[in-house]
Amino acid sequence: MFLFLSAMKEIRNFCIIAHIDHGKSTLADRLLEYTETVSQRDLQAQVLDDMDIERERGITIKSHAIQMDYVHNNEKYVLNLIDTPGHVDFSYEVSRSIAACEGALLIIDATQGIQAQTISNLYLAIENDLEIIPVLNKMDLDNAMPDEVKDQIVDMIGCDYDDIIEASGKTGYGVDNILNAIIDKVPPPKGDPESPLQALIFDSVFNSFRGIIAYFRIFNGEIKKGDKVKFVNTGKEYEANEIGVLRLKQESRDVLKTGDVGYIISGIKTSKEVKVGDTITHLAEPCESAIEGFEDVKPMVFAGIYPTDPDEYEELRTSIEKLQLNDASLTFEPESSMALGFGFRCGFLGLLHMEIIQERLDREFNMNVITTMPNVSYRVITNKSEIIEVHNPSGLPEQKFIDHIEEPYIKAQVITRSDYIGPIIKLCLDKRGELKNQVYLTTSRVELTVDMPLGEIVFDFYDKLKSISKGYASFDYHVSGYKPAKLIKLDILLNSEPVDALSSLIHVDNAYDLGRRICVKLKDLIPRQQYDIAIQAAIGAKIIARETIKAVRKDVTAKCYGGDITRKRKLLEKQKKGKKRMRQVGNVEVPQQAFLVVLKLNDN
After folding, report:
1. Cβ count within 10 A of residue 552
2. Cβ distance 501 to 337 under 8 Å?
3. What are phi and psi of 125, to 5 degrees?
4. What is the C-alpha to C-alpha distance for residues 132 and 175, in angstroms, rounded to an integer?
5. 42: exposed, middle or buried (Cβ count in 10 Å: 0-12, 13-18, 19+)
6. C-alpha span between 424 and 510 (Å, rounded)
């Protein structure tokens, strides 16, 4: 027992909280370099961000974990860094990583100050009683504002000025102070080594040879290689074929004890069996209760993904299945469209998640896909008080069966400079938002709290916010619930035939404007045919906008030099009949860009 406790005293489990581009991955590199976890030969920028997209965009998409050894006052300590994604789409993963730690490094950019996502993740850490160590990063830059940003940090977390560690991820300045603060301030893990096994899964990765590898943190008890274990929430039972710790590469161990962070390989082949937030326990002697906070991750944004070549449907299915092994939050089900053929209706955590999946399909699997207009999940309450979840406009029941429709609402936090507050409030109100609170963090920085529909931010809200504020505003949100809304189905018709891939569920106030703009844009994109093409926007049977693409006409009267006018009329009449016949049998070819038209409407 004493050996267990002394071993636990030498463990420190911590995570890093930071907004996108505040230098979290670079500072993590310096920690790995300083503790000699990574040799000079293996060192590269953003060691923990191993995807090309992560490196290019400067964001962490997949959370990582790594163990470091550090000697402090002649004692050897084990530091487990559980890295977290910074983007709002991955907030559930962040919450589970935070739950696996006792301390958090709060990294704030000395040139930008506190941003919205930093605040929401900080609140999560405070709720979990984590010890917060504030770090002011990028101190080497000429435009750093240390005094101003320190004032913001003190106001927000109530620490002393001396507690804030000045650092630079680029030069390595202050890294030793950070490591010493982790050991001095972050408490060692608590837990009972003699209790039944209770471990929290905070992440999982897929290995094509070994199956799904689950990463976990042990709160009570211990696990040995070969133990029979059970995942509490899924009810699945496995054998621990291999367990170990997460160094730069996985290192197997025979036993892991209370407070340890490690991995388990059990030959699991499907991602649905390993859920982030689940509890691992022994089959023979299970723990009394699961670790609190588990929930099934629900997708918030839905879009259809179709192959550009219909013959590649099966290849697309295989590619999405492989992606799902690495990313359990991606959901998909087959669907078909009159215009696009066979494809899949995919559910994403948010817009960034959707963009990343598209890019990974292209890069990793060389799949060219068409993505339909994204929409959120609506709840339809029928006349019989049944609740139907609708992810696709084509799944909407007939109007006569609908009592009302509810849409998801979010509580959004926007932090901006006070110079841009007017245009930002106007943008939020235009998006059917309702201003709830306005707090001045400093004389020049304001935090706005707005209630608004999720459906209004899935197109261009973030881009517009960034352009209005010249890149300074930061945005964060969480779903607050559902509210009734006046939503209607907007159909786009080509030659009186609805194009299902372009239909959308939209608020009644925005329908006329959006319908007209889609028609104008399609007129530019669809090539002219031998006959007139009518492009119409319709709500039910009512046409609300129309554009006509004129036919390509041959001058059939060119051979008539003078003579009776009836000869010309006869030829024109004959041409007219031919055009009418062509129109009845002709199919309008819709180019690929037309399906992205709605996403690009803010360009004009």
Report:
1. 10
2. yes
3. -65, -40
4. 16
5. exposed
6. 19
Q: What letter would DSSP give residue 455?
A: G
Token duo for residue 259? 């407070």
Task: Tokens for 535, please give them.
Answer: 């492009």
Q: Are strands 103-109 and 11-17 parallel, antiparallel or unpaired?
A: parallel
- pLDDT higher than 70, residue 147: yes
Other beta carbons within 10 angstroms of residue 126's beta carbon come to: 13
* 121-143 pLDDT, tens digit each: 787 788 788 888 888 888 887 77
Using the predicted structure, report yes or no on whether residue 183 has a pLDDT greater than 70. Answer: yes
Q: Is 493 helix (H, G, I), strand (E, B) or coil?
A: strand
How deeply is 100 buried, as exposed, middle or buried, from its count of CB atoms within 10 A (0-12, 13-18, 19+)?
buried
Identify which of 413, 407, 389 has the alpha carbon closest to the alpha carbon of residue 456.
407
End-to-end alpha-carbon separation of the chain, Å?
A: 70
- Count CA atoms closer than 13 A to 350's CA, side-chain side: 19
Residue 479 forms beta bridges with which residues?
A: 410
Report all structural domains of the chain as residue ranges with CATH numbers, in order of start.
2-185 (3.40.50.300), 198-282 (2.40.30.10), 301-372 (3.30.70.870), 379-485 (3.30.70.240), 489-603 (3.30.70.2570)
Q: What is the dihedral angle through the alpha carbons of 41, 43, 48, 49, rounded to the nearest 10 degrees?
A: -110
What is the per-residue pLDDT across 552-562, written as a single tens digit (0 to 9) for each? 766 666 677 66
Which residue from 70, 78, 82, 77 is spatially nearest to 24, judged by alpha carbons? 82
Measured CA to CA, the distance from residue 76 to residue 545 in angstroms comes to 73
Please classify residue 459 by burial: count the beta carbons closer than 10 Å to its beta carbon, then call 0-12 exposed, 13-18 middle and 19+ buried: buried
DSSP secondary structure of 80-149: EEE----SGGGHHHHHHHHHT-SEEEEEEETTT---HHHHHHHHHHHHTTPEEEEEEE-TTSTT--HHHH
328 touches 274 (CB < 8 A): yes
- The strand pairing partners of 76, in sequence order, are 71
Distance from C-alpha of 508 to C-alpha of 512, rounded to nearest angstrom: 8
- List the 165-166 sheet strands across, edge first: 65-72, 75-82, 11-17, 103-109, 131-137, 165-166
In contact, 108 and 134? CB cutoff 8 Å: yes
Mean of pLDDT values over 414-426: 86
In terms of Cβ atoms closer than 10 Å to its own Cβ (0-12, 13-18, 19+), residue 296 is exposed
CB count within 10 Å of CB 20 equals 18
Q: Are 70 and 99 in contact (CB under 8 A)?
A: no
User: In angstroms, what CA-CA distances link 146 with 40, 114, 138, 225?
Assistant: 31, 12, 10, 49
3-state class of 275 per DSSP? coil
